[in-house]
């Protein structure tokens, strides 16, 4: 399998070199290594290869105003776009390509303004992949396994010629095969047909054969499959072909030349990646995926992903978009020059000013607010410790921070400031005390203050309240159950008014109506988990946060 994957990769790149525009490109999912360098070195198309960074601006991609030349000549002078000259765009770290850039490149490809892509996917996790719109427009997805073989692969003698196939038969065959593997995109059979034609040209033939169709199916379909075809053994066998006396001789020859679909199905199934087989579902089944997720998106005027500029006034804090400003002022230059003929240079009005905008996605902070009161505090705190440690294991991947607030006795305290350090977390949790009353209002107050502080620092807070009873200690520290309930409702209302997300976990033996009312006040999900262990608690948190 290792040698075969390298052989298919070599064949795919040689076919892509023959027709890069027609085949769209290739996704190469490999980490940077000498083997990948050797694979890319064997790719020798007639067109030049240019690197397209994922941070490219719209002016560089589509062309824009040359600011220096425009200021010197007092005329609008534009730069050339990235694809003004025919080239193959190589995108390093394609798994980091922003969706907006992927959409723009896909639009350029649909308008036939590009000549092919090389998407170098260096992702490690399953969800770290090249953007789907671009990958769908590339014929090949290459992921060679193991080390590169020392024997050269992809020689022209490696595939026999086979039987001649008419183009109409090849189209029908590839379309039916795509249907059996659950491939809904019409690009797949189109790219497969172009791959078959490129392979025939590569082999020095002027016509298609069943070998060309088989190679095209094995190179284009495996990574696009969404289901495993069922075996055809139980299905009714097709009727026998008509005899030569009942139909013209030309039709009989055409049926004899039609390749067998089942053979191609087994060939493509044998090349499906192992991780893809684990994720395949039967046809007609819906599946959803979730993750820990990051914080909310927010607008910024200093950093983040660039957004379209907006009209505005200079206030000393926003950054001016010079290119957009000149583009807005350019159409008015002749009229303004007529109004002020004695003045030279560009005429910029306040209405022409365009300000830069950015969107950044903040990290999320999980604020565990744990009830440490009562005789069962030891078991509940142990569950909270285990849940936090389980969530911290994914903190680096999901960029989540964790904080811990404990409330017992007469007030709450912050035992663990926001952190992603697993060592520091275990050290702080080991000395977590318990016992006393239930100052729920104080716990919510500390959570509110920590949420406001973390929000000011750029984090997106989420409060996770873990308790098993009603509040019995008021904010003033007095044992007054009625006042404690009112204070808890007041603090929950204040927390909700800030827009902070929350989650209420009831760990009592029976669901408590008071906690259900509190969850409605917080506008937060309510989860009843009696006798929950760390694994169940962690799973409930993930399920509630991902919903």
Please give a structural write-up.
The model is unreliable at 153-158, 232-238, 243-259 and 274-294 (pLDDT under 50). The radius of gyration is 32 Å and the shape is flat. The protein has helices spanning 2-18, 20-23, 34-41, 58-62, 67-73, 99-110, 132-136, 167-180, 187-202, 210-220, 249-257, 261-270, 274-279, 322-329, 333-339, 377-392, 395-398, 422-429, 440-456, 481-497, 513-522, 534-546, and strands spanning 25-29, 49-51, 88-91, 117-121, 140-142, 164-165, 208-209, 297-300, 305-311, 354-361, 364-371, 400-408, 411-419, 460-467, 501-506, 526-528. The strands form 4 sheets. Strands 13-12-11-14-15-16 form a 6-stranded mixed beta sheet, sandwiched between helices. It has a 5-stranded parallel beta sheet with strand order 2-3-4-1-5. Helix content is 41%, strand content 16%. The chain is α/β, with parallel strands linked by helices. The two termini are 40 Å apart.
In short:
The protein is α/β, with parallel strands linked by helices and 547 residues long. The protein has helices spanning 2-18, 20-23, 34-41, 58-62, 67-73, 99-110, 132-136, 167-180, 187-202, 210-220, 249-257, 261-270, 274-279, 322-329, 333-339, 377-392, 395-398, 422-429, 440-456, 481-497, 513-522, 534-546, and strands spanning 25-29, 49-51, 88-91, 117-121, 140-142, 164-165, 208-209, 297-300, 305-311, 354-361, 364-371, 400-408, 411-419, 460-467, 501-506, 526-528.
């Amino acid at each position: 399998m290792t040698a075969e994957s390298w052989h298919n990769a070599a064949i795919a790149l040689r076919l892509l070199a023959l027709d890069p525009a027609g085949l769209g490109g290739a996704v190469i999912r490999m980490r940077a290594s000498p083997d990948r360098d050797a694979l890319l070195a064997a790719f020798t198309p007639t067109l030049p290869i240019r690197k397209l960074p994922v941070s490219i601006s719209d002016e560089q991609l589509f062309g824009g105003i040359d600011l220096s030349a425009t200021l010197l000549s007092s005329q609008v002078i534009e730069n050339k776009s990235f694809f003004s000259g025919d080239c193959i765009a190589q995108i390093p770290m394609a798994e980091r390509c922003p969706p907006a850039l992927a959409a723009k490149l896909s639009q350029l490809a649909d308008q036939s303004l590009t000549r092919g892509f090389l998407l170098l996917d260096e992702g490690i996790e399953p969800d770290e992949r090249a953007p789907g719109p671009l990958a769908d427009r590339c014929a090949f997805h290459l992921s060679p396994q193991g080390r590169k073989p020392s024997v050269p692969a992809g020689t022209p003698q490696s595939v026999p010629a086979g039987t001649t196939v008419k183009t109409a038969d090849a189209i029908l065959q590839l379309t039916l095969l795509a249907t059996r593997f659950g491939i809904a995109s019409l690009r797949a059979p189109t790219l497969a047909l172009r791959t078959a034609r490129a392979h025939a040209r590569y082999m020095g033939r002027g016509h298609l054969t069943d070998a060309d169709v088989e190679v095209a199916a094995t190179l284009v379909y495996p990574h696009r499959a969404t289901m495993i075809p069922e075996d055809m053994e139980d299905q009714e066998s097709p009727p026998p072909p008509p005899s030569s006396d009942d139909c013209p001789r030309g039709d009989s020859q055409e049926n004899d030349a039609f390749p067998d679909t089942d053979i191609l199905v087994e060939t493509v199934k044998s090349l499906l990646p192992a991780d893809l087989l684990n994720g395949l579902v039967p046809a007609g089944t819906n599946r959803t995926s979730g993750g820990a997720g990051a914080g909310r998106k927010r607008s910024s005027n200093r950093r983040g992903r660039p957004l379209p500029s907006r009209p505005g006034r200079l206030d000393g804090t926003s950054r001016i978009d010079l290119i957009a400003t000149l583009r807005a002022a350019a159409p008015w230059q002749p009229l303004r020059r007529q109004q002020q003929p004695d003045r030279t240079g560009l005429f910029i009005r306040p209405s022409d000013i365009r300000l830069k905008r950015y969107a950044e996605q903040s990290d999320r902070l999980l604020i565990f607010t744990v009830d440490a009161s009562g005789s069962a505090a030891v078991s509940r705190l142990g569950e909270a410790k285990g849940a936090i440690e389980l969530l911290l294991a994914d903190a680096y991947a999901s960029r989540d921070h964790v904080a811990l607030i404990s409330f017992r006795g007469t007030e709450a305290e912050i035992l663990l400031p926001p952190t992603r350090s697993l060592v520091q977390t275990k050290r702080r949790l080991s000395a977590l005390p318990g016992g006393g009353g239930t100052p729920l209002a104080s716990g919510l107050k500390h959570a509110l203050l920590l949420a406001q502080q973390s929000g000011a620092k750029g984090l997106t807070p989420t409060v996770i309240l873990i308790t098993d009873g009603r509040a019995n200690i008021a904010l003033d520290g007095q044992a007054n159950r009625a006042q404690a309930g009112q204070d808890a409702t007041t603090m929950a209302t204040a927390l909700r008014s800030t827009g902070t997300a929350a989650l209420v976990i009831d760990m009592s033996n029976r669901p408590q109506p008071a906690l259900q009312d509190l969850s409605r006040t917080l506008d937060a999900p309510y989860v009843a988990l009696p006798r929950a262990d760390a694994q169940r608690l962690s799973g409930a948190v993930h399920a509630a946060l991902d919903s």
